[in-house]
Design a protein that fits this description.
Blueprint lengths: L6 H24 L16 E9 L12 E9 L2 H10 L17 E8 L4 H15 L17 H14 L7 H18 L1
Antiparallel strand pairs: 1-2, 1-3
């Protein structure tokens, strides 16, 4: 019987057949054949550093500069999926939505690169966290006096769901109140 396929197709079919036979032979001698999984190096993937600007949980009026602050800074290789994880939960580990996702977050892309090495993403994220001082970041943000822990953020979110707003007092607020009180007492006295 004559094979009417082009020559290169015949060679490809013969090559695949020989490979299958070799794999079966190896399987009999060494157990099931292990096909090496091809992984793409991380430095050849797209990378992005992003930031969310959120409404302050205790700001009732939402004045543009006073009622908003930088909420979160992060890095990702898949921006669309990561945004979905923050807003709706889910993802690889099935976690719940971020505690700040109900504060009308606005997403800003700080840095993006088509083939981005991991060390560069880490460095840019570190700089962005240092300069923007986001309140909901845990990592690299221990020195921020306005930082809100995850536990406290969840507590504030449950209060917002029940009451419509949540108080957020920091040491800075108490200090500011004492300064105003001293000014008032000094002016009156």
């Amino acid at each position: 019987m004559k094979d009417y396929r082009p020559e290169w197709t015949q060679d490809l079919v013969a090559f695949r057949t020989r490979e299958r036979m070799r794999m079966r032979l190896d399987e009999g001698l060494r157990g099931p054949a292990r096909v090496p999984r091809v992984t793409v190096p991380r430095w050849t993937l797209y990378g992005e550093v992003y930031a969310y600007r959120t409404r302050k949980s205790h700001a009732v009026l939402g004045i543009p500069f006073l009622g908003w602050h930088w909420g979160y800074v992060g890095q990702t290789r898949n921006p669309k999926a990561r945004h979905g994880e923050h807003m709706n939960g889910g993802g690889r580990y099935g976690k719940e939505a971020a505690a700040w996702s109900d504060l009308s977050p606005r997403r800003y892309r700080i840095f993006h690169m088509r083939r981005c090495p991991q060390w560069l993403l880490n460095f840019v994220e570190f700089l962005a966290i240092r300069f923007l001082c986001p309140v909901y970041n845990e990592k690299l943000n221990r020195g921020n006096p306005r930082r809100i822990s995850r536990k406290r953020a969840r507590r504030q979110r449950s209060m917002r769901m029940r009451l419509g707003w949540a108080p957020a007092l920091h040491l800075g607020h108490i200090f500011l109140a004492l300064v105003w009180l001293a000014i008032i007492v000094g002016v009156i006295a």
